[in-house]
């Protein structure tokens, strides 16, 4: 390799190294999301008169969701937060929060959304294996429910704000919940629930 080739090779390596260092220094950290508390006070499945595979689920699920911004220079405007609940990979509940009033989360800040309630009834298509799984969990007294967060947000860096965008759905899977009444949950302080850290957070990375 000649002198010119050596210079080109050195320049290329220098630029790559500079790029990696810049990414490490300036790329913000992903925010953290955690289901810190949860209470399941109703979760009843019954057959409908229309179709043997269709079941009516009556539910009431209450959550506390913690948002943590670990960054020193980056803030977030959450224009919309949707909380989705799935059972057996089937959606049974969705609630939209702050649809008209965005909230801002500043630097090194923690925000807790208290008492997010998903309540109602939903007709669900269940196969025999789904029925068997529900009966098994009913016998054990513990249900496995997946929660997902669908966000619409903007990022603020100094005085610069991005346009709003929708990152991929964030997964807070495998919440282990036993049926309890509201008073029991309040007296126990939710101590029986183990917080679940959410995954698949891709706001700055893809």
UniProtKB/TrEMBL annotation:
Keyword entries, A-Z: Membrane, Transmembrane, Transmembrane helix
Domain Late embryogenesis abundant protein LEA-2 subgroup: from-to ranges: 65-163
Bilayer disposition of the protein: Single-pass membrane protein
Protein name: Late embryogenesis abundant protein LEA-2 subgroup domain-containing protein
Transmembrane segments: 6-27
Cellular component annotations (GO), alphabetically ordered: plasma membrane; plasmodesma
PANTHER family per record: NDR1_HIN1-LIKE PROTEIN 10, OS05G0367900 PROTEIN
Pfam families on file: LEA_2
Gene Ontology biological process terms in this record: defense response to other organism
Record localization: Membrane
């Amino acid at each position: 390799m000649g002198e010119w080739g050596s210079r080109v090779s050195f320049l290329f390596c220098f630029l790559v190294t500079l790029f990696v260092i810049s990414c490490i220094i300036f790329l913000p950290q992903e925010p953290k999301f955690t289901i810190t508390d949860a209470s399941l006070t109703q979760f009843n499945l019954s057959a409908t008169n229309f179709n043997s595979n269709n079941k009516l689920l009556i539910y009431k699920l209450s959550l506390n969701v913690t948002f943590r911004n670990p960054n020193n220079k980056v803030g977030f405007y959450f224009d919309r937060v949707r909380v989705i609940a799935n059972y057996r990979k089937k959606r049974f509940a969705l609630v939209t929060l702050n649809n008209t009033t965005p909230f801002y989360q500043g630097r090194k800040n923690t925000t807790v959304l208290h008492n997010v309630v998903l309540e109602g009834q939903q007709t669900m298509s269940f196969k025999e294996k789904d029925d068997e799984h529900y009966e098994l969990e009913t016998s054990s007294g513990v249900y496995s429910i997946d929660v997902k967060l669908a966000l619409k947000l903007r990022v603020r860096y100094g005085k610069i704000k991005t346009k709003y965008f929708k990152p991929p759905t964030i997964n807070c899977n495998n919440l282990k919940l036993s049926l309890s009444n509201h008073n029991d949950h309040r007296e126990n302080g939710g101590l029986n629930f183990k917080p679940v850290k959410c995954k698949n957070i891709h706001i700055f990375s893809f």
